[in-house]
Description:
The complex is a heterodimer of chains A (314) and B (255).
Chain A: E1 7-16, E2 19-29, E3 34-38, H1 45-53, E4 60-65, H2 75-78, E5 81-84, H3 96-104, H4 113-119, H5 135-147, E6 153-157, H6 165-180, E7 184-189, H7 192-198, E8 201-206, E9 209-214, H8 216-221, E10 227-232, E11 246-247, E12 253-258, H9 261-275, E13 280-285, H10 289-299
Parallel strand pairs in A: 3-7, 3-8, 5-6, 6-7
Antiparallel strand pairs in A: 1-2, 1-4, 8-9, 10-12, 10-13, 11-12
Helix pairs in contact in A: 3-4, 3-5
Chain B: H1 3-20, H2 22-43, H3 55-86, H4 88-93, H5 99-129, H6 138-162, H7 169-182, H8 195-203, H9 206-217, H10 228-248
Amino acid sequence: xxxxxxxxxxxxxxxxxSLEAVRGIDFTVExxxxxxxxxxxxxxxxxxxxxxxxxxxxxxxxVRVLGHDPARNETALKQRMGIVLQETGLPQYLTVREVVxxxxxxYPSPRDVDEVIGLVGLEESSGKRVVSLSGGQRRxxxxxxxxxxxxxxxxxxxxxxxxxxxxxxxxWETVRxxxxxxxxxxxxxxFMDEAExxxxxxxxxxxxxxxxxxxxxxxxxxxxxxxxxxxxxxxxVEPPASLGLRRAGPGATWELDSSSPTRAxxxxxxxAVAGGIELIGLExxxxxxxxxxxxxxxxxxGSEPATSGGEDAA
Amino acid sequence: xSTLALTLRxxxxxxxxxxxxxxxAFFTFVFPLMFMVIFNVLLGGTKPIGGxxxxxxxxxxxxxxxxxxxxxxxxxxxMVTTSRDLGILKRMRGTPLPTVAYLGGRILHAIGIAFxxxxxxxxxxxxxYGVRFPWDRLPALVLTLMVGAASFCALGLAVSGLxxxxxxxPAIVQFTVLPLNFVSNVFVDMRSAPEWLNxxxxxxxxxxxxxxxxxxxxxxxxxxxxxxxxxxxxxxxGLAGLLVAVRFFSWEPRR
Lengths: 314, 255
């Protein structure tokens, strides 16, 4: 079965009463891949992931996780996956090491307890009780607990929400290390940079539907062809109208959208060099995943009633 | 590992957690003893209450019942609701650990604590008030304690399924258990109570449990102390509790 995809979802729907939280989703996650579901709060990410984890039943569609139907609540499946949920507690008075060891004991071939603790960077806190850990340390322990059974497939539901920037970098390093071990990871996030950095493939989900999917690079190039050239001019200098520049906000910052940035830059710098003018902070940027994301999630706005709250509705 | 081995492993983790919170552990044992002292001091421990018994002869089995119900029913209801709200149950649900092993571990540990409490209260009564331990009715005592502990654990699980959140758990649990303690020969001698109240209180599980324990502790009654009628009422409540628990048990917080 190694050729079989880790997760196959087709036509997945989930309704809570009259609210349709997930409205026909299809995607496949290959083995060894990091797949990110990116979307705003209430988009249906958590609902989808919790169906894959076996916590929720689906209203329609077909779902296979490591060849199993997660709705059947099979031990054989649970032995092969690890879950990091958004909000979960742990026994308060056990130490980090005891907690990891306790969970490791539930699996047929667990990873070494100290190795797991090292992987999430909690070596120095391994003798500390859960109750005395900081928020960031607890989140790392969440990950350690999910890794204790050495799972093939890992679900990470908004793993870095509430982290400070350095803790996020650290978490990303851990996820990269896991990819190196050949794990399949399904990640949900509402941080563009997280999806961009970690994922091989990204699905942008909005109002219960996948509105775009692909690698972060191909998604970044989608729709918005134009590159943006941005620079500042010394006070009192006005560029010629022939260059097609526009003012970007207050001050002397200018922008130029161009689908052929090489030529545009040549014209611009030609004009500047001829006039002895310095282009302050000159930069050329390609549309980022963030731009695409904002455009795609904005496009859909107003077409349907808001689904906020649907995410956690039970 | 077998389910039994996993269950016993959970008991060990539960036990370690329990004793690591010394304040909680201490008051679990001190609370019933405090009632024992208050009632005996207030009402005069050696004062006769008729039938050849003294106040302390009434309160030793009474407080044992109170302690056992607290350590099983109240404890399980609170603990399960709190773990549910903290997301611990949901996390456990995502692991291969069988439900039976997880909940079984908690229940076995609660029963262990309850039995320890029974021994402490019985010792306390024997040492300070000369209340004789019913060695001659040990089989009846063990049987009644086991039926009681199992049934009150099941009822604790059942009520946790009906409690909306951990904040409301103490109020709801006390509402269900405190009035019964007053009308079930636990805190108050029911011989002088109106007949209708006696009839009503016999419907609920604490009264038959307390009555059986009183009879076991009473040296002036005859028989082996096994009251099948009372045990049947307690067990019926336990079974009903189990059915409600299976139907309404929730792995996730209710918000």
